[in-house]
Amino acid sequence: MINMYNDIIELSKRRGFFWPSFSIYGGFSGFYDYGPLGVLLKENIIKLWREDYLEDGAIFIDTPNLTPEPVFKASGHIDRFSDLACECDKCKTKFKLETVLKYNGINAVPKNLDEANEISAKNNLKCPVCGNIIKKVYDFNLMFRANDMYLRPETAQGIFVNFKLLYNYNKNRLPMIVGQAGKGFRNEISPRQSLIRLKEFNQCEIESFFDPDSLEFGELYDYLPVKLLPNTGDVYKKTVKEAYESGIIPNQAMAYFVLKTQRLLNKIGIKNEMLRFRQHMPDERAHYAADSWDAEALIDDEWFEIVGIANRTNFDLTNHGNNSSESMTVKIGEKEVIPYVIEPSYGIDRIILSVMSQSFYKRDNGYNVLALNEYVAPFHMAVFPLLKKQKLQEKAKELFSNLFLKDKYIIYDDVGSIGKRYARQDEIGTPYCITIDFQTLDDNTVTVRFRDSMQQKRILISDLVSQENPLSALNALKIVQ
Questions:
Q1: Is residue 140 very low, low, confident or very high in pLDDT (cuts 50, 70, 90)?
Q2: Greater pLDDT, 299 or 42
Q3: Check whether domain 82-141 has CATH 3.30.40.230, yes or no
């Protein structure tokens, strides 16, 4: 992950997608700012996520980032949300233990601190930075503490503690799908690779509540085969429907959210051939999970988790019921149950980096192209006057104003030559450029340029501005060109 990664980092900073936070003070590891284009890209992805789950009847809430200690004591995060870590006495660099083990060629995965210290003592682990022998391993809690509160490491607990209120709002019906988009915070030992591992990050989480005896939702339909890696060590290329029917994915609800995630990621711009779903081994699951499947995206030659889909059973609701004044039991017919939860958790920052990386390429002339799809591109179209001539500018601004009434994701640009403007829009992912030239003044036609093919087509302005959705009209032109 070197060549393309460096290209993406350079483009993102120069064009205003994202850059290191607090850079005038040297930057701080694990923190990134989104620039003007990054904000639009992020908001478009979250909008797609929200609309996709609204189709399932999802409801949404917004809860605080700061959470009282009893919540995380009940959820198990205070006692169990930690990584095994180590620190070099000589250079003072801190590492996740797994990083040091890999550097020293050790494949063992310690289950606890005692086992980790035993492995460390037997193998004389060398520091990856200075070569010094690392002597001590310790548990490192990943939450940020603020007096008697914590910054949340996930948005999920805000949903669980509100379960009874949400259940009442939902007219006491299951299944119930609840979503929340917001910030999460994790005190990562070694934040790295820009948006991959951050201390403050963006999440979109869905908590789906079910009758434990009926883990079913929606319809499993035929879709594109995808690579599946169950924890048996096998590798399959199957549709998710086939994976459920053959027992690879254990329950229908889990399969439904794997399929839904696959389709949503494809729509966002993750290529199906660069996407896989990997089931966690039992010893790598989170403390609350009975089963977990990660959606992983390929960036250069490395796979990175971008979505985690977990069967949390009734772990969270049971513990909050036992540790608070609120029972989490509901009545279904004649039986009383504590609902089970299937959770698809989307890491928005990682999705952004994956989409940008998978859509980036260089033309033969060396110019960069970001082939974002129109659903997430910061701008759907750009309007240009061919030259800085008053009549051309007036006509271009008139067209821009008319289109802006119907599509807010549009930009006007008259800076530089027409070739440089095309290149600039290609590099930020704008799929369509509309140019007003001298012929426009005679016959009210404009030139539409298609980013991916660089082909151009002349159309009447009225054929564009008369449409309720100009973007759909341009998409239709692209199909028939």
A1: confident
A2: 42
A3: yes
- CATH number for 379-480 (one of 3.20.20.60, 3.40.640.10, 3.40.1440.60, 3.40.50.800): it is 3.40.50.800
Q: What's the sign of the alpha-carbon dihedral 464, 468, 474, 476?
A: negative
CA 63 distance to own-chain centroid:
20
| Strand, helix or coil for residue 43 | helix
Beta strands in 374-452 (DSSP E): 381-385, 410-412, 432-436, 445-450
Residue among 167, 157, 136 nearest 66 (CA) = 157
pLDDT tens digits, residue range 406-415? 999 999 999 9
- Phi and psi of 400, rounded to 5°? -55, -45
b/e code 29-52 from CB counts within 10 Å (16+ = b): ebebebbebbebbbebbbebbeeb
Topology of the domain comprising 3-81+144-357: BirA Bifunctional Protein; domain 2 (3.30.930)
Beta bridge partners of 331: 336
The single residue listed with the structure tokens 């290149």 is: 423
**C-beta of residue 383 within 8 angstroms of C-beta of residue 400:** yes
Residue 481 confidence (pLDDT): 57
Q: Kindly report the average pLDDT of the chain as a whole number.
A: 95
Here the tokens at position 408 are: 């807010």
Residue 453 has pLDDT above 80, yes or no: yes
In angstroms, rounded to a whole number, what is the distance separating the alpha carbons of residues 227 and 343? 21
The full set of domain ranges for the chain reads 3-81+144-357, 82-141, 379-480
- 98 closest CA partner among 79, 119, 114: 119
